[in-house]
């Protein structure tokens, strides 16, 4: 089993599933548990970058660069591919392009004067488990990195790592809201405090996925953690109630909803719809 399998086996709520309640409804949460998302190219590349940046010594053992087999329409090329993959079973096969990009991103992060000190001492992929004090719900989280100042044994910061097409503050802020980063930041911060009895700050290292692989480190302010905390706590309380009643309502909550025109469309003329087919 890999560390990902070990983590998945822990019977507890994580922020990825809880986001289904935050964004949609308990019904969507329940559906995700019975039909987990399939792996995607973005997730696979993200794992590679995390390994390259946070666990460079483990990279060679987990990943292998797949050779060029030639024309895979031929039986010989397909046989070569199958034989090579069988020989390297247990490792994840990636392309030269992916590996070069991941190594470039790792070098950029490790060489950045602001990001590098956070990674000089610490532990990657740290699993947190705790029982929520208010609801009693078992929770889990996997922190990208726990930073240890001056290589001591006392963590001083929770560090996240994100890849993005642009690290510009406004663009990253929009993405953070869209992807629900704030509830995750608060969830991990509260989980750490619940486990160890003290609060530590959080930062997010953000690196461009394309050259020049520029790097920014964002400190997560208390007001953003408070907003994320409000979001995830509402969802956690709702989850506990749904479990107690064994009821999993959808977006409408069983109620008739009134259609509301979005603000961006409130001043459009009907003439704009001429020629629209139904």
Can you walk me through this structure?
The structure is a single chain. This protein is of the alpha/beta class and 278 residues long. It has two domains: 10-36 and 113-243, Alpha-Beta Complex (Lambda Exonuclease, Chain A), CATH 3.90.320; 40-111, no CATH class. Helices cover 45% and strands 18% of the residues. The protein has eleven helices and seven strands. It has helices at residues 3-8, 15-23, 26-34, 41-54, 59-62, 75-87, 96-111, 116-119, 169-179, 181-196, 222-245, and strands spanning 63-65, 92-94, 122-131, 138-148, 155-164, 202-208, 215-219. The strands form two sheets. It has a five-stranded mixed β-sheet with strand order 3-4-5-6-7. A two-stranded parallel ribbon has the order 1-2. Strand 1 (63-65), helix 6 (75-87) and strand 2 form a beta-alpha-beta unit.
Across the major sheet, the strand order is: 3-4-5-6-7
Instruction: Kindly state the number of beta strands.
Output: 7
Please give the oligomerization state of what you see.
single chain
**Strand and helix order:** HHHHHEHEHHEEEHHEEH
What integer is the average pLDDT?
A: 90
CATH fold annotation of the largest domain: Lambda Exonuclease, Chain A
Residue share in helices?
40-55%
Characterize the overall form. Answer: globular
**Fraction in beta strands:** 15-25%
Q: Gyration radius, to the nearest Å?
A: 22 Å
Structural class: alpha/beta
Number of domains: 2
Give the biggest beta sheet: 5 strands, mixed
Distance between the termini: 53 Å
Give start-end ranges of low-pLDDT stretches.
none
- What is the CATH architecture descriptor of the largest domain? Alpha-Beta Complex
Which CATH class of the largest domain applies here?
Alpha Beta
* Tally of contiguous helical segments: 11
């Amino acid at each position: 089993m890999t560390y990902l399998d070990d983590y998945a086996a822990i019977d507890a709520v994580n922020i990825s599933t809880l986001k289904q309640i935050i964004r949609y409804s308990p019904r969507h949460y329940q559906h995700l548990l019975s039909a987990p998302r399939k792996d995607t190219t973005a997730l696979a590349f993200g794992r590679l970058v995390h390994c390259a940046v946070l666990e460079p010594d483990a990279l060679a053992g987990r990943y292998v660069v797949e050779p060029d087999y030639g024309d895979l329409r031929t039986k010989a090329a397909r046989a070569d591919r199958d034989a090579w993959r069988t020989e390297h079973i247990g490792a994840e096969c990636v392309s030269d392009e992916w590996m070069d990009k991941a190594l470039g991103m790792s070098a950029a992060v490790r060489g950045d004067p602001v990001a590098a000190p956070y990674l000089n001492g610490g532990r990657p992929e740290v699993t947190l488990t705790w029982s929520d004090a208010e609801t009693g719900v078992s929770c889990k989280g996997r922190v990208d990195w726990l930073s240890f100042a001056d290589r001591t044994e006392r963590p001083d910061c929770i560090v996240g790592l994100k890849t993005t097409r642009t690290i510009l503050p406004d663009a990253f802020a929009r993405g953070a809201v869209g992807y629900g980063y704030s509830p995750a930041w608060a969830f991990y911060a509260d989980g750490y405090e619940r486990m160890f009895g003290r609060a530590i700050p959080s930062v997010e290292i953000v690196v461009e996925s394309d050259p020049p692989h520029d790097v920014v480190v964002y400190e997560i302010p208390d007001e953003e953690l408070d907003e994320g905390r409000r979001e995830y706590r509402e969802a956690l309380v709702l989850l506990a109630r749904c479990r107690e009643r064994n009821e999993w309502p959808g977006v409408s909550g069983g109620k008739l909803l009134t259609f509301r025109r979005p603000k961006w469309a409130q001043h459009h003329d009907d003439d704009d719809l001429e020629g629209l087919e139904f």
